[in-house]
Amino acid sequence: MSVAPAAELVDPTRRGPDRRVLAAGVLLAAAAGAWVGQRLHEPSLDQTTEAPPLIDWRTARDIAVTMSRDEALSMADRRKLDAEYRTLVARCVPIVSEYTGDHLPDAPERTFAFDRVDWVNANIDSFERMFAPLEGLSILGDAARRSIAGQMLGTFNQKVLSAEVGLLLGYLGRKVLGQYDLTLLGREPLSPGRLYYVEPNIRAAESNLGLPREEFRMWLALHETTHAFEFEAHPWLRDHFNAMLERYFGFLREDAENLRSQGLGGLRLYVERVRSGGGESGSWLESLMNAEQRELFIQMQATMCIVEGYSNHVMNVVGRELLPNYAMISRRFAQRLQQRSQADRLLAKLTGLDVKMEQYRLGEEFIDRIVQERGHGFARRVWDGAEYLPTMKEIRQPELWLARIDHHDGRIVQRAPDTTINGRE
């Protein structure tokens, strides 16, 4: 889950990928061929054949793993590094606890050193769980799905989508440094989150940027450990995020049903959404949403804004006091972001990660502003409940959130819908 001073960790390639963005992208990619299948209406001898799943997870895994097999950790290395990272997290827990005022009992025991294949396998499993609400539906209509051509098209779409997911995860598996992985949309009881540190990528960053090993790893551990505090010291946050995700996947199912029933007309629906001017943020994904979907998406982004911004705030405040080379680490990591390749920039644009980078920066600025004006004790009220979370407009204009909290003297009323797009009316 990602400062130049205030912006180096706002790097989506450092975090796990945004599964909401990928889910929507997969559905839209499948839609490109769906209306063709509606036209290819050949009779089939097997009238009971069902469309293949949207994604062949074995194929996606194989592609991503093939890109990630170098620099595998031996069992001896794994045991040594597990102990090293658990010691780091054990050091971070009382430090973060003292600053945040929260308690976290067992995070070190859920900390693991990963190689790239480990990271791919963990995230493939998480993605498959996340996509489960979309399985069992087909964008093709019943007749087209049963036709020979429809079956061929469904298989082709599956191969393309599986390859896209595999390539994306394989690429990110070479970039991500650390991740707090929290099971979402699972059945009760939900397991606590786990902390992953991708050793080959961390080692490469240290070498390429000339970073002091112990301090850099402590810097990363402060950020990831703070995520564990956020979600596990405040259980309502996971419930809140799960509720938003369930609504989000419900919207995706509705769009899939519309595409199936309307064929080409379903694609025209997206064209109309773009024409309506919904994409003012510059994100192609938001431009394809209707007003209700966009409102929910912005609410989810605002929540993640605070999750990431608060972690960066804690990491920086504590890191400045704890790490002698903090300023140098921050400066060099910022330069890393500024020197991203054209391929990295293109990927960020296509996946919507560039929008995430901006919003995570805003989240940190929001927390820093509140702490500066009212102190950390006031800023941490964002964790008092879902109704205390700021909207995206309030994140861009912190004085609005302060006024709302002050006006109700701690008794927050229901927030009005955030009808802005990244702060624009």
* Helical residue percent band: 55-70%
Annotation, overall tally of beta strands:
3
Summarize model confidence as the mean pLDDT: 77
State the end-to-end CA separation.
Answer: 28 Å
Description:
- This protein is 64% helix and 3% strand.
- By secondary structure, it is mostly helical.
- It has a three-stranded mixed β-sheet with strand order 1-3-2.
- The protein contains 18 helices and three strands.
- Residues 1-14, 32-48, 139-154, 412-417 and 419-425 have low confidence and may be disordered.
- It has helices spanning 19-39, 57-66, 75-100, 116-131, 142-146, 148-172, 199-209, 213-232, 236-262, 264-275, 284-287, 291-322, 326-338, 342-351, 353-374, 376-379, 392-396, 398-407, and strands at 111-114, 178-181, 194-198.
- It has a domain at 1-6 and 212-425.
Which terms summarize this structure?
about 425 residues, mainly alpha, 3 strands
Short description:
Helices cover 64% and strands 3% of the residues. By secondary structure, it is mainly α.
Task: List the SSEs and their pairings.
Layout: H1 19-39, H2 57-66, H3 75-100, E1 111-114, H4 116-131, H5 142-146, H6 148-172, E2 178-181, E3 194-198, H7 199-209, H8 213-232, H9 236-262, H10 264-275, H11 284-287, H12 291-322, H13 326-338, H14 342-351, H15 353-374, H16 376-379, H17 392-396, H18 398-407
Parallel strand pairs: 1-3
Antiparallel strand pairs: 2-3
